[in-house]
């Protein structure tokens, strides 16, 4: 009996020692913004939870994307907009350039609805890409973007930045199609993916809710949240 108590206590201590806790980097890499708003961190914790089913996962990802886009669009240029209130003429502001939201399929679709809530008039580009399970390299299967990419601010979105291959490939495709201003919004990232994307496209600012400590041998982010696409679409 005593041995059993020692055994379970040792297992509990081991589990506790292995527990990951969120740590906001004191100095995130250049061009990377970690959005540490309390609501973002609370909703991200719910997303990470293995007990969270598809329905709640979708709801939380939607809410998170609205919060993330609020921060990620903070520096968008505006220009004067002349309007008439019921009482007087008024010079307010409107966005100076069109915005294009560009999800990387599939999981990036989970961030679109929440962003369109704040940006209802924008166009949506679609970038089809999946990661080869053996090589971990992205394979492209679809690309469709509006013709005005060159004059737009493009917000590329994907919940996960792991090796960085998918986001890097997506930015390359967007630039080949004319995009000149691209920013990337993800939920969970890691040092390897950030370095890959920033190295290939230093002009692309990255907004993330977390920089997790590592990738496992299947190139999944740990602690991460698992396979974002499978959890969002219920294909686990
Ligand atoms: C996931 C994720 C990213 C990519 C990240 O997509 O949504 O697109 O992997 O990994 P990387 O940074 O190493 O490229 P996945 O290939 O699983 O496709 P899915 O969204 O269709 O499930
Ligand atoms: N894609 C995911 O969905 N999750 C990861 O951790 C890595 C790639």
In short:
With 236 residues, the protein is of the alpha/beta class.
Element layout with pairings:
Elements: H1 2-17, E1 32-34, H2 38-48, H3 54-72, E2 78-84, E3 89-95, E4 99-105, H4 112-118, E5 123-124, E6 126-131, E7 138-144, E8 153-157, E9 160-161, H5 165-176, E10 181-185, E11 188-190, H6 191-200, E12 205-208, E13 210-212, E14 214-215, E15 221-222, H7 228-233
Helix pairs in contact: 2-3, 3-4
What key phrases describe this protein's structure?
Rossmann fold; binds uracil; binds 1-O-pyrophosphono-5-O-phosphono-alpha-D-ribofuranose; 3-stranded parallel beta sheet
CATH fold name? Rossmann fold
Describe the main β-sheet briefly.
8 strands, mixed
The figure for the number of domains is: 1
Tell me the span between the first and last alpha carbons: 40 Å
What structural class do the secondary elements suggest?
alpha/beta
In which range does the helix fraction lie? Answer: 25-40%
**Nearest-angstrom radius of gyration?**
20 Å
Number of helices: 7
General description of the model:
This protein has 236 residues and is α/β, with parallel strands linked by helices. It has a single domain (36-77, 95-233), classed as Rossmann fold (3-Layer(aba) Sandwich). It has helices at 2-17, 38-48, 54-72, 112-118, 165-176, 191-200, 228-233; strands at 32-34, 78-84, 89-95, 99-105, 123-124, 126-131, 138-144, 153-157, 160-161, 181-185, 188-190, 205-208, 210-212, 214-215, 221-222. Strands 1, 4, 5, 6, 7, 8, 10 and 12 form an 8-stranded mixed sheet that branches. It has a 3-stranded parallel sheet with strand order 9-11-13. α3 (54-72) packs across α4. The protein is globular, with a radius of gyration of 20 Å. Residues 4-8 have low confidence and may be disordered. 1-O-pyrophosphono-5-O-phosphono-alpha-D-ribofuranose (PRP) is lined by residues 104-107, 130-131, 136, 138, 158-167, 193, 219, 227-229.
């Amino acid at each position: 009996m005593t041995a059993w108590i020692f055994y379970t206590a040792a297992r509990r201590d081991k589990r506790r020692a292995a527990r990951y806790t969120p740590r906001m980097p004191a100095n995130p890499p250049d061009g990377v913004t970690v959005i540490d708003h309390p609501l973002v961190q609370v909703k991200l914790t719910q997303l990470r939870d293995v007990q969270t089913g598809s329905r709640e996962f979708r709801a939380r990802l939607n809410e998170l994307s609205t919060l993330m886009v609020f921060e990620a669009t903070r520096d968008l240029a505006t220009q004067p907009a002349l309007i008439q209130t019921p009482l007087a003429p008024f010079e307010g502001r409107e966005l100076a350039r069109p915005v294009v939201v560009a999800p990387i399929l599939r999981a990036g679709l989970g961030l679109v609805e929440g962003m369109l809530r704040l940006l209802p008039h924008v166009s949506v580009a679609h970038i089809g890409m999946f990661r080869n399970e053996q090589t971990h390299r992205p394979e492209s299967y679809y690309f469709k973007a509006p013709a005005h990419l060159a004059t737009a601010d493009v917000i590329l979105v994907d919940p996960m930045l792991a090796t960085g291959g998918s986001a890097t490939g997506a930015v390359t495709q967007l630039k080949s199609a004319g995009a000149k201003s691209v920013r990337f919004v993800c939920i969970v990232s890691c040092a390897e993916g950030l370095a890959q994307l920033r190295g290939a496209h230093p002009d692309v600012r990255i907004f993330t809710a977390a920089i997790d400590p590592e990738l496992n041998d299947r190139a999944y982010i740990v602690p991460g949240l698992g396979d974002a696409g499978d959890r969002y679409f219920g294909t686990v």
